[in-house]
Amino acid sequence: MEGVAASLPRPSDLSPSLIGFLAEKFRTxxxxxxxxxxxxxxxxxxxxxxxxxxxxxxRMAGSVAAYAVRSEETGALLxxxxxxxxxxxxxxHGSSKDGGDTEDGSGRREQILAxxxxxxxxxxxxxxxxxxxxxxxxxxxxxxxxxxxxxxxSVTGKLKTPSATNSADICMVAINSLKQIEDMLASVTxxxxxxxCLVSAVDHRVDRALSVLRPQAIADHRHLLxxxxxxxxxxxxxxxxxNTGASPELSNPLFLMTxxxxxxxxxxxxxxxxxxxxxxxxxxxQLSGHTLEIALSQPLWxxxxxVNPIMVAAQHFLSKxxxxxxxxxxxxxxxxxxxxxxxxEILQPLVDKxxxxxHSCREEWISAMVTSLSxxxxxxxxxxxxxxxxxxxxxxxxxxxxxxxxxLVDLMISFxxxxxxxxxxxxxxxxxxxxxxxxxxxxxSIFCDRPDWLQMWAEIELGETIEKLRVAMQDEKSWKxxxxxxxxxxxxxxxxxxxxxxxxxxxxxxLIDRSRPLPSIxxxxxxxxxxxxxxxxxxxxxxxxxxxxxxxxxxxxDDDGLLKVCWSINSAWHFDSGLTEWCENVFFLExxxxxxxxxxxxxxxxxxxxxxxxxxxxxxxxxxxxxxxxFDSLCRDYLKNRRQWQEKTEGxxxxxxxxxxxxxxxxxxxxLEEALNGMDxxxxxxxxxxxxxxxxxSGVFLSSIKFNSSAVERLNGDLEVLFxxxxxxxxxxxxxxxxxxxxxxLLKMEEKQLKDGIxxxxxxxxxxxxxxxxxxxxxxxIVKNTVVMG
Length: 790
Prior knowledge:
The protein is mainly α. About 75% of the residues lie in helices and about 0% in strands. The protein has helices at about 1-5, 15-25, 35-100, 105-160, 165-190, 195-230, 255, 260-285, 295, 300-320, 325-355, 360-390, 395-425, 435-440, 445-450, 450-475, 475-480, 500-515, 520-555, 560-585, 585-595, 605-635, 635-640, 655-675, 680-700, 710-725, 740-745, 750-755, 765-770, 775-785. α11 packs antiparallel against α12 and α22 (about 605-635) packs antiparallel against α24 (about 655-675). The termini are far apart. About 30% of the residues are buried. Mean pLDDT is about 80; it is low at about 1-5, about 160-165 and about 240-245.
């Protein structure tokens, strides 16, 4: 025992840390039997440390050897440069000494200046590049080695003592080294792009280190969150239910943390933020020259680590409510509201301290909660609703499945509006007009990744809307009454459209409003194409069927059939102008700007607008043809009876049959004026006027009738009545009957004047006398039919 005691060191020779360690391990005599286990543990740790030291020695020796090799190479190069400079100086000195003014000396200097000096300068530049490359490589190798050592130490420490307190310090050491590496790589990338192999090699080693460092840092952060009591416990007593009113606010562990735990959390928070900023800088450098906005828009890791555990805890409740989705949205909104204040008061100063530019903790919290909800809906809720919709065979089950789907979409739209209101009330600068930002705070972004679900939703909306509108389109009363509701278009134009047209247009407007919450221009355009355009075509087909029915029954001869067609034309004009006005709105202009392939530059409803225009043009021409047909039947005797023009009358005499035909036209056009909208009425009466002009001109002026002065007076009286009828709709009716007016003008000319022009075949004379719508042949025939009274 004495020998053993003599071999032991005295207590005064032991360091305070060693005395504290022994006192902690051997507090009582009962702890002495544990000494062999402690000895084995210490031996193992010493062996590990010796192995680490040996590894560091080998690496240092390798670095020193590499540095020595590069130094020798650089020294040899510099020696060559020095020798070249000595030779250059000797040659210059020798040339000067032996006769600098001689012709040979001058030639030698010129040769040196022209050949050897540029080559020497080039060699010096090359040596400088090699030296700079060697120094940069050594610095980067040292820094990367520091990072790898820190990562190795962190992993080794975690394996031996999972509760080690210096992991944050080790992480910060690695981050500082990584920052220096990134600064050097950014400088090299700009100033030495030819060193891409060096940059690539360093990036490869850094990526390997980061693949270990980031998970380790996140694991440390999660451990700290768990020690803080995050997430707070969720129970039935503090979960909000839509049918029970408000519930108490959840306790926030972030407000409750104090002392050393708060310091550790803040340090770990900062290190994780700095690591993310470093990752962002590296990605920015690596993606230089490419589209960076989407690639660099990453959510904050620290906020994600707060959202993920609380959403995992909430899934216990969310998974039970697939048939009551309103509870799901209510719970997520409550969780978002309860913790949003702590984001600004506690975490935002830390983010600012970490110099994470352009990040708002409130915005990140809200967007992360919405993204988690969207993920849950896409994985758990929507697949069940799709199966329910596809598996329903009976009409009642199918109807219930469609209603459930629409109810879910209504809840998503309502939730997104509340979230956007929350963002606006907090004064955040998130641009809700930007599709990328809007997708982060919208549950409707689900449809961005699932266009098949968007198509299913559009088909359901289309089916429900058409089912409601068909009832109105089949109600005859709705076609005979004017629309009395709110006009959805600007301007004071009286479209005179029936109530059914207003109902269909309002239904289409409501359907388009359903697409507005979609967070993508492409999605909105796709939805309107799938759901909106078919409604427009369905209504156009209905208009066409009604017009064809009226034409088939009465050939539009009666007023009821004519009125039916007029109401359809008014509806077409209402939709034509309404859709055109919509397409000039920014909402639709954005869709036009993203057109692809053959749709580029086309308006959303361009094809439908063209179809409405063609429909109006076609049926306006048919109405004009019907009126002209009636006019022709009434004035047929007037056009065929040639003897009436040979009768001599005193005073003004009118043709009774022609006046009767004009009375028919006046009555028809007056009814059309009352029934048709102003835009379509004008081309209708003008088409009638053009037809009357052609019909009477061909039947009277070109029918070989001999006109004496009495016949001319009678024809003049008939045409004055015609012009008077149409003066109700224009100021100068003669302009709409150019052939009749010019033919009558020829009949009234003097014989000498006609011989000087027409009988000589002078076309220029016609233009000089205002005859612009008759050919020479027609004018000659009219003049030849004139009977000159001697």
